[in-house]
Amino acid sequence: MRWPADTRALRALIRDPMGLMGLILVALFILMAVAAPLLAPYDPLALDVRAKLQSPSLAHWLGTDQLGRDTLSRIIYGARTALTIALTAIALAGSIGILLGLIAGYGPRWLDAALVLIFDALNSLPMMMFALAIITVLGPGTGTLILVVVLVSIPGYARLIRAQTLSLRSADFIVAEQAIGASTPRILMHHLLPNVIGPLCIVLSMDIPVVIMLEAGLSYLNLGVKPPTPSWGNILYDGYTAIRTSSTLVIAAGAPLVLATLGFTFLGEGLRDALDPRFATARPR
Amino acid sequence: MTLLSVQDLALDLPLRGGLLSALNPKSRRTLQIFADVSFTLNPGETLGLVGESGSGKTTLARALLGLTATTNGSIHFEGHPRRTTGDFAAMRRDTAMMFQDAIASLSPRMTIGALLAEPLIIHGQPAPKIKIAEMLALVGLPPDFATRYPHELSGGQARRVGVARALVLNPKLVIADEPTAGLDVSVQGEILNLMTDLKTRLNLSYLIISHNLAMVRHVSDRIAVMYLGRLVEIGPTRETFARPLHPYSQSLIASEPLPDPRKRRQDLAIKGEIPSLLNRPKACVFQGRCPHVQPICRTDPPNLREISPQRFVRCHLATPIGALA
Amino acid sequence: MTEPLLEIDALNITYHTDHGKLSALRGASLIARTGEVIGIVGESGCGKSTLAASVINLLPQAAEVTSGAVRYKGTDILRLPPEAQRALRGQDIAMIFQDPMTAFNPVLTMGAQLVDFQHAAQIPRAEKLTRARALLARVGMPDPDLTLRRYPHQLSGGMRQRVAIAAALLMNPTVLVADEPTTALDVTMEAQIIHLLRDLRRDYQGAILVITHHLGVVAELCDRVYVMYAGEVVEEAVVDDLFHAPRHPYTRALIACDPGHFEQPTPILPTIQGRLPDLRTPPTGCSFAARCPLAEAICATPPPRIQISPTQSALCHKAGGQP
Fold first, then answer.
1. Where does the protein end up (chain B) (predicted)?
2. Nearest CA of chain C to the CA of B256: how many Å?
3. Which residues of A touch B123 (CB under 8 A)?
């Protein structure tokens, strides 16, 4: 399967200054996460109580925290935490959403009605309350965090896929596949999926920063990633408690959070414009 | 033996009412798409199904292949009744469909090669590249078309791919829905000639659905005229065009603009328009527009009757010579 | 002979596309006089829609008029300032589209739109409504008052086309351009719209341009015909001559291909071999030569426009001989 729009879309993305910036920020962020062990000058968990709350220096470019851990190393590893959680949660939610959306859109009417009812029910819960309730029951932690994101995101993704599938289920090429005897799984996977997934990809890429923010927010409240695992939220919290002594920590953890969020958002918006069919037609001079 | 035989086929779709109608089954209304459809198709024969938009001809075509459920009547293909999904699945190898919008009927993210291989793969047959090239050659396309995508094709080329895809499994019956819609006249001839040529070479039967009388006339052995979900006339093409028996067939043939300014139509053959399916006339469906309408047409629904050998008409007033009072 | 109402003079239009410049019109000329129904016929890609768009100056942005003129009562409308062009559109020159659904606003009633189309007229609203009602009756709408209260989607295709014709006539235009007016309609509705247009021309003080690919519509409706191929007018003739004494090989081939032209069924229909030339690099000689059964060496040079009679001409080296 080839995506005919691919190279054209990529070129359009790079031509757009916002899209290009998004692409660069996201690339840096991913590099930081993947190459964390190579980039980090110290072990992010190594304590050095004698060197606590130091200001930036040649030895510790971004200083240290209350326990003397190197902030730069913790930020770099924090990127890994954020990315792992965001990608895992979004990938899980995306796959389940796609599957449920395809089933709802292509399956029998009663199944569609039942699934839509469930999506609506999930959607009607206030997200924060829902998240807090799950965390209260299961206890904070990475797994809980991912579960919360998945449960909250599925209805939106599934609805998007369902709407696209509904509009295509009686398209000529689908009826044509039925007429040559294609099985339902074949129609779903070979013919519907490639044609409905585009818009979802954009939504997914724009949801990654939302998850990163959520992770940071909950970790800051000590409801997310459990210390001592480095997370930007945890670092922010540490910085908050030490803000009277040093503001380095807050800035050091806040900046990458802002940049990563901006990067993914720009990339998502750039992708949306680049893949928009209205831009795909021949543009007059 | 007849290849396809259809008896009293009917389709009613439920009208979606409000919540109250769901609670009270008696108040549920249905919309009749077509009814009392009976005809046969012999091996090697081409039947042209003509009618205007809203006559139900496309839905009927899909119902014949089990792509749309029916509410009444029976379909026999090669002598076996086709009722369940399994029955229809068993005949998929021997039937094929060509769609009105050829480009839209090709899955947009697959190459032409993959699209041609797909029927073979689905039915567990080998699909070597040579076979794909053969199919492309059969419909007059060069082999490098296998790597193209549907949106890269012109209307005529997409039609050819549609023909190739329909024939790749060596079917016995091909249902072609408006095979020349949207094509220029010069290309239209190419596609029809190709279909005629392949029909004799591969011993196919066609059911050709169209609103284009001039086209149907040249490719069909028999024609069936549909109006508002009813077959109103069936007969051999030549005789039906020479002496249409049903008033609707008469006005349809008389409405076709002829490419000759010396034969300008002076009077309107037919006034008014097809009623909505929601306001289907009782008794004869054509009564509202018929120039010959009689009281009986408003009270008794006419049956499709064989008025002379091979010629069937659904009209109280039709006579074997075609002229009406 | 009356003065031309509309004159298209050696018009050249180029489209700037991603794949280079495309010559959509190459020296197309046309004359329409008051009281005439002009047919412009050709297959897809021949430039007939571009020609129609140039008349009301609704060319797409990518189009560039490289030379030539479109004169309405002697004034070149392509060189008028935009406001003057807008004033001309709708008042003097009106258009009927192939799909009337797209010409109407789906959320306004027909009455509101028919009144709105008359925004330039300095008459009270009630009078505009009266006029709309009268025109709806004129185009054969069975219940004009009801139609005024209807939304576009509540009308059938044929009815919408009637309303579109009424809308086009609201401002009493002198040139009416109908782009494929019956293509989206069924045979019986097509016959009715042809009948209506033919009926209208009797009391209509202007010219009607009918753009179509359907030779049957041309034969039924038009007085004079321009046949277009690859951006050029290849033949111009009175309708009877066009069908009974065509001189350009393309016209002959086009008529031969129309299945409606055979009395008896034929197993093999005629076709035109080959393809339309690539208009990014139009041939220097005759554009039909590559597909023409009569083509000779001379056809590689630009063909002359041979005047066969005062009303008939053909763009062909070989049109001079006997038909």
1. Cell inner membrane
2. 6
3. 181
Structure tokens at B236: 């051999």
| Alpha carbons C65 and C11: distance in angstroms, whole number | 7
Taking each helix axis from N to C end, the angle separating B247-255 and C187-202, rounded to the nearest 10 degrees, works out to 50
Give per-residue pLDDT as tens, C164-177: 999 988 888 899 99
Q: DSSP for B106-172?
A: S-TTS-HHHHHHHHHHHTT----HHHHHHHHHHTT--GGGGG--GGGS-HHHHHHHHHHHHHTT--S
Q: Which one, of B275, B287, B289, lies nearest residue B315 by Cα?
A: B287
- The average confidence (pLDDT) of chain B is 89
Q: How many CB pairs under 8 A join B and C?
A: 125
Instruction: Provide the pLDDT confidence category of residue C10 given band limits of 50, 70 and 90.
Output: very high
Return the domain boundaries, chain B: 4-220, 246-325
What's the CA gap between C185 and C194, in Å, rounded? 11
Which positions in chain A have a beta carbon within 8 angstroms of at least one beta carbon in chain C?
282-285
CA B70 to chain centre: 16
Tokens found for residue B96: 């094929």
Structure tokens at A183: 């099985």
DSSP string for B105-121: TS-TTS-HHHHHHHHHH
- CA B294 to chain centroid, in Å, comes to 30
Calculate Rg over the CA atoms of chain B. 21
Task: Answer for the pair C176, C209: CB distance below 8 angstroms, yes or no.
Answer: yes
Q: Which residues of B touch C156 (CB under 8 A)?
A: 273
What gap in Å lies between CA C221 and CA C207, rounded to an integer?
Answer: 13
What topology does CATH give the domain B4-220?
A: Rossmann fold (3.40.50)
Class of domain A17-30+62-280: mainly alpha
Contacts of C252 in chain B (CB under 8 A): none
Q: Given a contact as 3+ CB pairs under 8 Å, which chains touch B?
A: A, C
Residue B112: CA count within 13 A, CB half-sphere:
28
Report the residue of B55, B141, B153, B186 to disrupt the C interface, i.e. the one with the largest count of C CBs within 10 Å.
Answer: B186
Q: Is the peptide bond before A228 cis (omega within 30 degrees of 0)?
A: yes
For the record, the structure tokens of C160 come out as: 């919408």
Q: Say yes or no: C83 contacts chain A, CB-CB below 8 A.
A: no
The model's pTM is 0.84
CA distance A189 to chain B (A): 12
**To the nearest whole angstrom, how far is the Cα of B127 from the nearest Cα of chain A?**
15
pLDDT band at A281 (very low <50, low <70, confident <90, very high): very low
The answer to whether the Cβ–Cβ distance between C186 and B274 falls below 8 Å is yes
DSSP string, B200-222: HHHT-EEEEEES-HHHHHHH-SE
CB-CB neighbors (< 8 A) of B196 in chain C: 267-268
Other CB atoms within 10 Å distance of the CB of residue B109: 21
Distance from CA of A277 to the nearest CA of C (A): 16
pLDDT, tens digit, 9 for 90 and up, residues B33-51? 999 999 999 999 999 999 8
The answer to whether the beta carbons of residues C32 and C4 sit under 8 Å apart is yes
CA A284 – CA C196 distance, rounded (Å): 39
- Determine, for residues A284 and C19 on separate chains, whether the beta-carbon distance falls below 8 Å: no
Among chain B residues, the shortest Cα distance to A2 is held by B109
Which residues 34-63 on chain C approach chain A with CB closer than 8 angstroms?
60-62
**C65 to chain A, closest Cα gap in Å:** 14
3-state DSSP assignment of residue B237: helix
pLDDT tens for C103-147 read 788 899 999 999 988 888 888 999 999 999 999 988 888 888 889
User: What residue in B sits closest to A198 (Cα-Cα)?
Assistant: B109
* Three-state DSSP class for residue A60: coil
DSSP element (H, E) containing C215: helix C215-221
Say if CB A81 and CB A236 are below 8 A apart: no
